[in-house]
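Dig into what follows:

_____
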Amino acid sequence: MENQSKQNQQEQFEFGILVLKHERPLFEENYVNMGGRMDFLKWSECSDGTGSYQPDWTAIGEADIDDPHFDDQIQEHAEHVTGCLQSWLECAKSKAIPEGYYLMPMQPSLEMLQKAEQEFNDLDIEDIQDRIVFAHQAMIQALIQSA
């Protein structure tokens, strides 16, 4: 049981790293597009794949900023942006689709509708519930094949 728990923890950690690698650039783009500033910050990656935003002291020095209050402010800002990223990642992980489920559009595409229609051509189905199940399965198959 303990080995299973350790394996689950390791899998969750690895999943978190994959989410981080995928989502961090999206977070940064969104953060800047929404008016956030990342000037003088850089991503500092740890050996295990995690990381945090840190002040880019080289860029700060090159910009000739010599204000002791700025040093404290940029450190606080780095911690704030790291916290924002962590919240973003939690949201990204919670949007994961469970095994056996598919993300489907609210409105079926023409291809999905045609696939469902093809499914019914040779079938003599009286029960509407069966029709719904078959149509749903056909639309999922069309979605999978187009992916």
